[in-house]
Predict the 3D structure of the following.
Amino acid sequence: MGREKHPSGLYVLFFTEMWERFSFYTMAAVFMYYLRWDHWKEAGYPWLGQYASLINGLYIGTVYFSPFIGGILADRKIGYFWSIIYGAIFLGLGLFLLSVQNVAFIFLGLLGMVIGNGLFKPNISTLVGKLYAPNDPRLDGAYTIFYMGINIGAFLAPLAAGFLRVHLGFHAAYMAAGAGMGVSVLIFVACRRWLVFTDYRQASTQVHPEEDVPPNVQRNRHVALLIIFVVVALFWMAFKQNAITVPLWFKDYTDRSASAATPTGLLDKEGKITAEYNALINPFYVIVFSPVMVLVWGWLRKRGLEPPTPAKVALGMVFAALGFALLAVGGLDGGDAVAAQRRLDEAAGLSPDKVAGLVSPGYLLGAYVFITLGELCLSPMGLSLVSKLAAPRSRSAWMGGWFAATAAGGYLAGAFGQLWEVWRPSVFWGVLVASSLAAALILLVCYGRLRRAMLPPKLAVAERTEAKKSLASASG
C-alpha cells in the first residue's frame, strides 16, 4: 500500500480469497448456533448441543490441519492451480451438504469443508509469495493486504448469515456460502494469467529465482519456523474462541438491546441485535486497522526502525493478552454473576434467557481492538515468515505446517471451550491471558535464534562463523 506498487496478481488473489472466506465464515457464523439448535434436541440428537464446543473445535482443528497434506500434494503431485480448483469444488459441495438438515449430512458437509480447505488454503497463500523476489521488503505489506481481503469476506459473511438464518433458516445461509465459493473460483480461473504457478521443479522459468541457501542455514530457518508454529498454536487456542465461546458470551451474557435507530434488518425476532453479528466486530477492525498497520510498518521501515518479523509476532501476543484481560474484567463486572444465575435457572428447569444484569457490549468491542491488533501482528507476519524462510522445494508443505499449527490451536480451543459451562467467565478468559503471555515469553527466550534465521544466507553464514571464532577464542 502507500507508494509501494504491488503486482496485479496480488489483487486477483485478494478477491479470490475474499469470496472463499465469505463462504467459510458464513458457515462459521451460524455453525455453533446450528449445533445448539432446539430442533436437534426435539429430533432425538441432544448430544449435538451438549458436545457443540468439542465438535466445533475438532472441525476447526481438522480443517486447519488438512492444508498440511494439501500443501504436500500441491508441491509433489497436483500443482498449485489444480489444487485450488479441486479445493473450491469440495468446499462448495460441503456447504451445500450442510444446507440439508440431516445429522449425517452435517458430518459429510464438514468432511467436504476439510478436504476443500486443505487443497485451497495453503496454495492460495503460497501464490502471494511467488509474486515477489526473495527478500522483497514489500512482502509483509503484501500479506497484510491479502489478509485484509480475507477479513472483508469475513465481515460480509455474518451480515448474510444472520439475515438469512433469521428470515429463511439455516439452510439459506449455507446455500449462500456455497454460491460465494462459486464466485471465488470464477475470479481465480478468469484472472489466472496474472499469477505465477511455477514451483521448484521449474526453477529455470521462475520469475524471481531463489537464492541458494546453505543446508545448515536452511535447518536453522526451519527450526525457527517450528518455534513460531508453537507460538501460533497458543495464539489460535485463544483466538478461535471467536467461533466457540465468544458467540455464547455475546448471545447469553451480553446486553443485545437495540436502540430506536437500529435498522430492523439487524434485529432478530425478539427485537435484539442478531447473535451472529458478534462475528462482524473482528473483521471490521481488521479492515480498519490493516491499512494503518501497513502505513506504520512502511513509515518505520523508511527510517530504519521497523521491528523484525519475530518482534511483531511477540507484540501480537501481548496485544492478545490485553484483549482477553478486558474480557476477564467483564466477567468480574457481571459476567460471573450472569453465569451463576444461568446455571441455577437451568438446574431448576427455568429458561436461562430471562437472566437480568447482562454485561455491556463495550467489553467485547474493546477486547477485539487489542485481539485484532494482535492478529494483525501475528497472522499475516507468520504467512510472510513461511514464505521467507521455508525451503523452495517444500514451501507449500511448510505453509501447510502453518495451518497445522492453527489446527493444533483449534483442537485446543474446542477442548478448552468445554470448560465454558464449568468455569466462571473471568477465570476462563484469565487462563487465555496467561497462555498468550506464555507464548510471548517463548519468543523472548528464542529471539536470538529467530533473528539469525531472518538474515540473508551470506550474513547468516558470516555471523555463524564469527560466533564459532569467538567461542574458540574464549575457550582458548
